[in-house]
Design brief:
Length: 961
Amino acid sequence: MPMGCEVGPCTSGSTRYIVCEVQGQQCLVPQSHPNNLNLTFFVTLDPQSGQQLYVNVATNAKSWVLPDIEAEAAVDPSPKDSDAAISPPAAVTASGTSYELTPSDDGERYVPQRLPFEPLPVHCWRPVWEASEGHFVYKNCETAERATKLPPLEHYCDAVRQLYGFYRIEGSYIDVIRQHFGSERWLAESLSIQYGPMPLRSEEAMEVAECYFHRYDRSKLAGTDNLLEKWRGNEIAFVDALCKEYGKRPRTTRERVRAIYAQHDPAKMLYCDEQVDQYKKREEELLKVLERQFGPELITETESMEDITQRVRCQLLKYDPARAAEAEKLLMKHMGAEVQLLELLVCHYGPEVGLEEREHLLKGFAQTVWGDTDDASKESREVADKEPSVEEATAAAKETATPTTETNAGNCASDNMPYESRNENASKGPVSRMRLFAEDLAPALVPRVAMPSNSVALEVKTSAETDTPKALSHTAAVEAAFTALPEPDDTVWRLRRTPSATQDGASFLPDASPHADMVWRKHAEILEVERRMREREFQKQQKSIQLEEERLAREFEAHQRLAAFESERRWKEETTKVMEFAEGAALHTVQQLIRLQPRQGDASGSEECVEDVARQKKYSQTIEALNSANGVLVEQFAHMKVQLGEALASVESYAERNERLRAENVRMANKFADVQRQYELELQGMRMHLDDTRVRAATRISEQEVKLLHLKKQEEEAVANLLRELERERDNTAAATEAWERGKVEAQANIASLQQQLATTVEERECLKATLSSREVALRARTKELEELYDVMGRQRAVRSEVGSQTEALDFGVVPAEVRASADSFSASLSTQLTYLVSVPPEVRNVQNALSESQRTVLELLAERKKLMAECEQAHAAIGMLRQQVRSLESTVEKLELRYLAVPDIPVCATPQDVAVANLKGDLLKVGNQLLKTDAESTQLKREIRGLRSLLSLYMSNAKK
């Protein structure tokens, strides 16, 4: 990437840009949208032209000029960042967890997929667009909590599953998750703190494996993907196997960044994965940026075990005091990953305390522990007969152990054996002291991988030395020794149980009182596992000590042999010197005797002869002394000869052994030469294979380049075709818009005419209704009069028996209403016959006239009804035409929407062709807005048509009545 240049505030049209810092780089952002990353640009220099180039932070799109946001907002009143224009994506992935957008009664919401249970509203999130920020935020459907990133629920559930499977926790993990809906992350972290290291995601496990292989075995880096695929779904066992094979677990960049944010800015912990992925292969740069922002790291790999233990205890003392006494147990469960345990506690509870507060917490904890220890000593005197020794206390603890899980983590003093019994065992001798500390302290101090023998011996020696009565102080070793053994008596446990053990929130597991037997068995299994681990660690220590002693014995034997050789050499030199001195003295004596022999014969009594005789006597005495000394020397020489013979035999045996070793070395050298030749042959074969692979790769690369050229040509042709198609779409859109305008005008005119017709129809209906009501009243009155007259006529017909047969045939009392409404000719003839046969009074004639008039009125009303029915049919036909027009408009809108969605996104460039494409895109956006307006108007038209239909149906129902 080209180097950046100096950045300062600037303007682009009517938009003012200010300087802000994003990821350690100075960028330009509009003053009206300071937090929108989609409108943030950083400035670089084009290497070819040397001009300033603006690169979008979110999309990496490049442009020569900054966009004028204010002008675009003024031209287009519907902003791009509004809720109407931007819709949430159909699916979102958060650290491996897939969320799908699902409609519901209260709107769309994201629902997690592939969970081992049915998601509840607490697991669903509703997307809300933040125009000022330029991105979506998520609102919980149950708690109304807002978050900028969706939680990885699938990872948390899978972590709980792996923890239950790897550590063989009794019960169903799904039931525990159901009890903690909405707090799955807290549940996974709590289980990890209680039982062991937390399972990692696949990418994090791969990073840990790469760190191991980079440090210990680089030949396995190529097969990391296959190895991780084999362990997929059981990453906790994979990391545990690596830790057992190679040793202490290394820290990855992701863990370091997460720990930094947990210490200084916990709200950004969810974004550390994205930040690490963004700085891929540039991790040191990311760590330097965070160091400049927050300062140096507070958690490092170089921390000593004592410091880590104190920091873990301080973290528990501040946030969870009930677990403070179990710091060593937690470190033993997280053996090889102690630094990761401290990071987990920081992420789970919160930032660490300062140095002063740490010292204050440790001092208060030490006073509490020693106060509880004194109480335990007093109570132990009451049960001293039951607890005579450490071995009996351990045996009793195996039989009557009380559950000491994290639910009752406050009984730190109840897990200790009596202090006096421990002192008695400590005073028995150094062997018992060493065994005591080897069994109690080794699991908390020895890492997973066996240490070298000298370091193990030094550690055991240090533990034995620190166990003396003078060294009994407020130290971590003594605290660990006092918390290592369980309480042997249930009565003492009930007496010593602290109130803090029953606090709410001390453990996430349910109350163990209904399941005492199960918890009892589980605790017994835990104690048995701890005992086996201690025995195993003690055996390892004993084996290491034995190996160290053997090595020291061999070195001492070799040193003794060298000392013997050196003493023999010194004796030989001294003997040579003494022999040379004795030989010189003997030669001197013999010469003196030879010189004095001629003078012995001449004994003339001279003084010289007397002196010579005296001297000769003196020399003879000296010779006798020398002879005695020579005898002693001869004896010493004989003894030295024997020793030299033995030394020579040992030297010859060593020479033979050296010859055998030399032959073995020659054989190993020959074998190494054979292996080296075989390796060279294999290496040569691998080189040939690599050469062939390079040739094939070069061929494939050339083929790919040719394909890329063809694809470029096809892409250019596709872009040209797309431009032509966009032009055609613009023309079609313009034509469709004109047709839609015409259809809209016609529809409005038809609606106006239908409304007028409806108004007139309603007025006529009201008039007809009033007329019908008035005539109905008159008809009822006249019908009543006619019935009375018919009764009178019946009585007259009964009197007049001569015309009875004709009168019975014309009985109007049983004539239906349809016969009454018969034709006028039949009524007239009937009335004429009746008048001719019977002398009818004038009232009957008036009634008959009124009946005929009412019949004519009914016929007129029927004709009017037929006319109205014809008008209704015409209205139905007009409504059908309007429906067809609406359907055509809807199909046109759907086609335009499909065409709009089929247009791909074109990157922002600075060429004229790209400018034309951008203009086309703007036109398409405008057409889309117009289509939205058209859709709204069509919806309004549908509503009006439904209203007209309801009015027509009401009118027709009234007309039928």
